[in-house]
Specification:
The chain is of the alpha/beta class. The chain contains 17 helices and 14 strands. Strand 4, helix 6 (about 135-145) and strand 5 (about 150-155) form a beta-alpha-beta unit.
Length: about 425
């Protein structure tokens, strides 16, 4: 990992940059695939599955027989773990239900909001080197609680044309309506435009690599809403001299193993901690099965030494990490000053992996600095708020002159007249 000692503020922008692909080439590829999906539907999805996932598919939808096979293939211990995690996720997200209240803004004028579920949602679940069945729970559970009528899921199949059994089991347990074998850009395009097999949805959720993120942003311009720009995973650890080096190293590695374009950063006031963490990373890395992937990720990860906790907090807010772990002696006070982060993990016994799996919070979070403007997925992500208003005869008499004056001064006479005709009567 790269060690940076007391960087000047002028260096922060470059220092905190994320690893990126050649975006010009990336966008060309994304547009080509999306155009083909829009034009040729299922045929294009099947063609790109053969090209990118190296599998020849005769059909896209997962059958009941495949669900049954997946249930048999899923270990009972894992089933129990999925059940417990699902319970916690449901509990946390159910607590977020919106309770609208009627408000009288002026005598005779009543306004209120109602939360209404998005009827059709699409979930993208990465497969590949790490089949993220946990993401199924994070997305499908709140979708069901919100009341979404149709929950469609796409995930890339393996070379035998099968989706990971744990993904299928988790989807069934969490209440997904239909599942399709499609990955990457072609899956995003299929859910955005609709094909002969895959229904068009109103909003797409789920993480992915930079191609998936680019595809989501592209389709969101005209065709469908998306949860957020969620690309390669990242973590920042904010720590002082009291932090446990083994804990910090394990948290950095837990993100680094996601993929070669993931990023892990330590921001600390302790040079001794940096040296100890570096040793621990090397020790723990040596026995990880995903060592090769993790090493590539660590090559653009950083251990940063700063002068004060104030500077560490400021740098963390500038980075706006997807995941933030705070391991300082006064972590609750430090947490109060964090304004840019997707999800925050407090104290030495709160690993980021708890939020990834089973504490109950959602792990679909904004990356690449988008935590400055976006929230992570929550119950509200699956709903819309519709406003209502009711004005009585007394109410229009009270508020009418205000509306007339404002409309007249915007030179919108028809707006003014809509009130005037009522006042005259």
């Amino acid at each position: 990992m790269n060690i940076i000692i007391y960087p000047a503020r002028s260096e922060w922008k470059n220092l905190l940059s994320r690893p990126t692909l050649n975006t010009a080439t990336l966008r060309d590829t994304v547009l080509q695939v999306l155009g083909d999906i829009r034009e040729k539907g299922d045929k294009a999805v099947i063609e790109y599955e053969e090209k990118f996932d190296k599998v020849k598919l005769s059909s896209l939808e997962v059958t009941e027989e495949e669900f049954a096979e997946a249930e048999k293939a899923t270990d009972n211990t894992l089933k129990e773990a999925i059940g417990k995690a699902l319970e916690n996720i449901r509990t946390f997200h159910a607590s977020q239900k919106f309770e609208g209240q009627k408000v009288t803004t002026t005598t005779g004028v009543t306004c209120w909001q109602k939360a209404v579920a998005i009827e059709k949602v699409g979930l993208y679940i990465p497969g590949g080197t790490a089949p993220l069945f946990s993401t199924v729970l994070m997305l499908a559970a709140p979708a069901k609680i919100a009341g979404c009528k149709e929950i469609v899921l796409c995930s890339p199949p393996n070379r035998e044309g099968k989706i990971n059994p744990a993904i299928l089991y988790a989807a069934k347990a969490a209440g997904v309506s239909r599942i399709f074998k499609a990955g990457g850009v072609q899956a995003i395009g299929a859910m955005a435009y609709g094909t002969e097999s895959i229904p068009k949805v109103y909003k797409i959720f789920g993480p992915g690599n930079q191609y998936v993120m680019a595809a989501k942003q592209e389709v969101s311009l005209h065709d469908v809403a998306i949860d957020m720009p969620a690309g390669p995973s990242e973590v920042a650890v904010l720590a002082d001299e009291t932090a446990n080096p083994a804990y910090v190293a394990s948290d950095l590695l837990s993100q680094a193993e996601h993929g070669v374009d993931s990023q892990s950063i330590l921001i600390t006031t302790s040079e001794q901690l940096i040296n100890a963490v570096k040793e621990e990373v090397e020790k723990q890395l040596a026995v990880l099965p995903r060592k090769e992937i993790t090493e590539k990720s660590l090559s653009h990860s950083k251990l940063i030494l700063v002068n004060t906790i104030d500077e560490a907090i400021e740098m963390t807010n500038e980075y706006a990490p997807e995941h933030l772990i705070i391991e300082t002696k006064d972590y609750m006070q430090v947490a109060e000053r964090i304004v840019n982060a997707g999800s925050v993990f407090l104290g030495p016994y709160t690993p980021e992996s708890a939020g990834d799996y089973a504490s109950g919070t959602n792990h679909t979070l904004p990356t690449n600095g988008y935590a400055k403007a976006y929230s992570g997925v929550n119950l509200d992500s699956f709903t819309r708020k519709i406003t209502f208003q009711e004005i009585t005869r007394e109410g229009i008499m009270n508020i009418g002159p205000t509306i007339e004056t404002m409309a007249a001064n915007e030179f919108l006479d028809a707006h003014k007249n809509a009130v005037t005709v009522r006042l005259k009567s």
